[in-house]
């Protein structure tokens, strides 16, 4: 209720008698109607009491009646008649608003009634006797009861109590004496107290009614919003009674149930979900425990007609925990799109086999569950010759045929996979009755060595296989893969077309890893680590926009140690944090010398989850004196696997510092759309495996195009990694990729070489080199730039 000029003090009730715009904002007409109704409803009782009181006065006075008594009775009768007439006319009317004039009629009637009894006091109280005592009792009760009863109409209360009080004062002065004068003053004081109580009651009534009106208005607004939500939103509100039957039915809710072929009539919601959704156990458990739940995803139905709902709900109130209210969102389209992305991320586009990501996940699960088995690393022996002589389209058909033959050797829970190029793998999980793994590997080699027919061509490839045992002696997934690769390299070294089982004789690589771990700390103190920088250029103009900092290590005895070796070793021995801080500090120093270019630094998942990583980044940037926007931190999708919520919180903290954040190797793993919505990355880096297969696999084009379109919709830039030829460059340009990175632009360079390269680029040399082949060192060679550790 809007406040008036006198709202909040004793004058509040008198605002009902005013007609100013400020008071009309209070909707005083409706308030006057409510207050008048409250008084009129008491009229029969009050008039009856007045008649009874008059009868007792007549009885005590006795006959014969004097003209004064007769006149007084007629006056009282007239006032009672007016009061009852007003009640009779009012009783069946539904009056929404009352004017000030009508309110004043009530004041006049109250004044007349008070004057009648005030006159009785003034006339007969001085005469003494029994009539004096009777009138004293009546008048005292009338002042108290009438003043409070007329509280909703303040001027009526004042006129009624005031006229009676005036009569009492006249009576006391007629009697005379200081005692009666004191009684008159006391009566005036009591009358004022009664009026004060009446004003307080009136103010409280107005405040209570205003609060109720505000609640009604808010309820109406909420109801309108809910109706609008139900009519137009994609979500549907629902509510159940104590028996679980749906009682709130909106058009959207009916449409959701019609989509799964279920009418709403008498649907007992939890029981219906139990029958139609295999994932309803969590919802039923929360329902039974009366606990609210949020964003619970359920599949409704099976097959092609299945839908996916996201449900949130809570009990209506603590007093009624059996009744529930919630929201249903139909996320079928989003689920299918996410499932499509998941399939693209976990399956090889050319062969349909699981990809490296899927294989690593399955192997990791087997390790955690202490399962026994074997990892078979498979490499085709003569595939490059087929590509060179028959073309990539024929090579693609050969790879598809290899995948079909590999599937024939799958037993039980085995998992075949294509790792990339002509590399395949088979994870064999032991089961009773399975053939020995070495026999299976030889059978697979024999199958792959038989001729492959592609059109009129009859081709031979052959394969080599390395086997590594998966059991409790394997300490990590890296060890399993390294062992399998070492066995594969040995198989190729001794003549190809062979299967070799990893054994102690092939442990040189393991010993090298141990040597790397031992040499790490000394190398760090000796300053053997340094950064190289690989430029990233605008895909349209080929002008540099950023560089990626890549860590390199040259050891006096071990030689050049690949990042893939020393990064994993640093993570195992706990030095990844020192190494990461070194890379970030050197990258920040380089950014100060590379005007206008953003410097990207890779961040290990272990670094990101370091408790004080954000403060470390802030401290290094402040120490070096470089703007945070000049630094971009690149993370991989693996940071989301263990604790996605904490990882997102830390990424948001980094973003608040002002640094940019990029998602590296996008497409090789599984990035939930929920993560991309929860943290809008500045950049998505498309994995090189998709870019380098653009000339070989048509599906790679569709995958990259999907990623670019999704990134644009989410406001992110895209970088195509591994661009090594004009075909790839033209393709990513056509798909409107923002930036490119790869050997076509430049291989990683030291800081000094990078500055020289940038100077040449300013003179237009790099664009010319791409068009006129001025860089012969990349021709005919497929390069792979290894990522930096941090």
TrEMBL record:
Pfam families referenced in this protein's UniProt entry, alphabetically: EAL, GGDEF
Domain EAL: start-end pairs: 513-762
Membrane listed as a keyword: yes
Annotated keywords: Membrane, Transmembrane, Transmembrane helix
Ranges of residues in domain GGDEF: 371-504
Protein name: EAL domain-containing protein
Coiled-coil regions listed in the entry: none
Species annotation: Roseateles paludis
Membrane-traversing stretches: 39-63, 69-88, 109-125, 158-176, 182-202
InterPro entries assigned: Biofilm_reg_signaling, EAL_dom, EAL_sf, GGDEF_dom, Nucleotide_cyclase, PAS-like_dom_sf, Rev_trsase/Diguanyl_cyclase
């Amino acid at each position: 209720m809007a406040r008036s000029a006198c709202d909040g003090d004793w004058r509040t009730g008198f605002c009902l008698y005013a007609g100013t715009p400020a008071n009309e904002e209070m909707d005083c007409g409706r308030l006057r109607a409510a207050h008048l109704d409250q008084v009129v409803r008491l009229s029969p009782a009050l008039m009856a009491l007045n008649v009874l009181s008059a009868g007792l006065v007549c009885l005590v006075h006795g006959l014969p009646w004097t003209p004064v008594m007769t006149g007084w009775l007629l006056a009282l009768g007239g006032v009672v008649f007016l009061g009852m007439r007003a009640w009779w006319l009012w009783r069946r009317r539904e009056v929404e608003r009352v004017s000030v004039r009508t309110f004043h009629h009530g004041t006049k009637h109250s004044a007349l009634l008070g004057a009648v009894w005030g006159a009785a006091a003034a006339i007969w109280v001085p005469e003494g006797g029994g009539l004096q005592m009777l009138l004293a009792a009546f008048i005292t009760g009338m002042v108290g009861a009438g003043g409070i009863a007329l509280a909703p109409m303040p001027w009526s209360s004042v006129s009624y109590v005031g006229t009676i009080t005036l009569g009492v004062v006249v009576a006391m002065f007629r009697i005379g004496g200081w005692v009666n004068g004191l009684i008159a003053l006391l009566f005036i004081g009591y009358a004022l107290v009664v009026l004060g109580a009446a004003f307080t009651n009136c103010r409280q009534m107005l405040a209570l009614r205003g609060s109720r009106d505000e609640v009604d208005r808010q309820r109406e607004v909420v109801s309108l919003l809910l109706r609008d939500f139900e009519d137009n939103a994609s979500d549907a509100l629902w509510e159940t009674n104590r028996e679980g039957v749906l009682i709130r039915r909106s058009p959207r809710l009916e449409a959701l149930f019609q989509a799964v072929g279920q009418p709403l009539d008498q649907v007992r919601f939890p029981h219906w979900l139990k029958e139609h959704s295999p994932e309803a156990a969590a919802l039923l458990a929360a329902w039974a425990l009366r606990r609210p739940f949020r964003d619970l995803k359920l599949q409704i139905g099976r097959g092609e007609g299945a839908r996916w709902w996201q449900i949130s709900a809570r009990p209506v109130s603590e007093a009624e925990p059996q009744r529930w209210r919630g929201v249903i969102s139909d996320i079928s389209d989003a689920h299918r799109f996410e499932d499509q992305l998941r399939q693209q991320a976990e399956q090889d586009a050319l062969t349909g086999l699981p990809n490296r990501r899927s294989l690593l996940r399955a192997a990791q699960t087997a390790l955690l569950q202490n399962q026994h088995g074997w990892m078979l690393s498979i490499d085709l022996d003569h595939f490059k010759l087929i590509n060179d002589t028959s073309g990539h389209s024929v090579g693609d058909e050969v790879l598809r045929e290899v995948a079909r033959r590999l599937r024939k050797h799958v037993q039980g829970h085995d998992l075949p996979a294509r790792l990339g190029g002509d590399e395949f793998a088979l994870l064999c999980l032991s089961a009773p009755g399975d053939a020995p793994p070495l026999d299976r590997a030889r059978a697979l080699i024999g199958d792959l060595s038989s001729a492959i027919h592609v059109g009129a061509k009859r081709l031979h490839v052959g394969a080599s296989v390395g086997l590594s045992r998966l059991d409790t002696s394997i300490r990590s997934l890296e060890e399993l893969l390294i062992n399998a690769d070492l066995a594969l390299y040995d198989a190729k070294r001794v003549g190809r077309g062979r299967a070799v089982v990893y054994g102690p004789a092939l442990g040189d690589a393991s010993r090298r890893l141990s040597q790397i771990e031992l040499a790490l700390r000394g190398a760090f103190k000796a300053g053997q680590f340094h950064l190289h920088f690989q430029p990233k250029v605008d895909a349209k103009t080929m002008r540099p926009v950023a560089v990626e900092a890549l860590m390199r290590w040259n050891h006096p005895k071990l030689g050049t140690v690949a990042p893939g070796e020393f990064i994993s070793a640093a993570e195992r021995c706990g030095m990844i944090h020192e190494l990461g801080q070194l890379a970030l500090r050197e990258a920040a120093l380089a950014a100060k010398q590379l005007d206008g270019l953003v410097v990207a630094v890779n961040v290990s998942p272990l670094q990101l989850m370091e408790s004080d990583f954000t403060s470390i980044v802030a401290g290094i940037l402040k120490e070096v004196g470089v703007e945070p926007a000049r630094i971009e931190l690149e993370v991989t999708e693996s940071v989301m696997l263990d604790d996605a919520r904490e990882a997102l919180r830390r990424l948001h903290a980094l973003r608040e510092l002002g640094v940019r954040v990029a998602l590296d190797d996008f497409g090789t793993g599984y990035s939930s759309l929920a993560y991309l919505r929860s943290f809008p990355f500045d950049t998505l880096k498309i994995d090189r495996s998709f870019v380098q297969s653009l000339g070989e696999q048509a599906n790679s084009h569709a995958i990259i195009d999907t990623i670019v379109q999704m990134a644009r919709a989410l406001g992110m830039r895209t970088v195509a990694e591994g661009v090594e030829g004009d075909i790839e460059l033209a393709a990513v340009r056509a798909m409107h990729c923002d930036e490119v990175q790869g050997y076509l632009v430049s291989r990683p360079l030291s800081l000094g070489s990078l500055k020289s390269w940038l100077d040449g680029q300013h003179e237009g040399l790099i664009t010319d080199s791409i068009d006129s082949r001025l860089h012969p060192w990349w021709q005919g060679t497929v390069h792979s730039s290894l990522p930096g550790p941090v």
